[in-house]
Amino acid sequence: MPEDVFANVFLDHDTTSALIAERAFGHVNFTGSVVAGRAIERAAIEASAKGRFVPLGLELGGKDPAYVRADADIPHAIENVADGAFFNSGQSCCGIERVYAHEAVF
After folding, report:
1. pLDDT in tens, the chain (106 residues)
2. Are 87 and 64 in contact (CB under 8 A)?
3. Residue 3 designated active-site
4. One of 3, 22, 46, 93 is an active-site residue; which one?
5. Which of 22, 41, 59, 97 is catalytic?
6. Sign of the CA dihedral running 49, 54, 57, 59
7. Is residue 103 flagged as an active site residue?
8. Has this prediction a pTM greater than 0.70?
9. At a CB cut-off of 8 Å and minimum separation 6, what does 105 contact?
């Protein structure tokens, strides 16, 4: 990919909002908190009100736990927890990142 096609940057909220307002790029793709996603969406809405549509891709939240109960079907739980953690190579905002197991099945 040519160097000027894609840039991954880490910015604070104010700088991000200012760049969105200026329509400094063609697309915003963000992975992070719901609070930050809302701020980005507000900035994009404000830019759109000025006639500058800003396309967004937001992956928000995503610290999803799994819980394995004492009465769980263990083979079923293993299959589904592993699938939930590794589906889409783990690049999913709903990917399981931690597992809690009842002490009876731990």
Report:
1. 788 777 777 888 888 888 888 877 778 888 888 888 898 999 999 888 888 888 998 888 766 789 999 999 999 999 999 998 888 775 666 778 889 999 999 8
2. no
3. no
4. 93
5. 59
6. negative
7. no
8. no
9. 68, 69, 70, 72, 74, 77
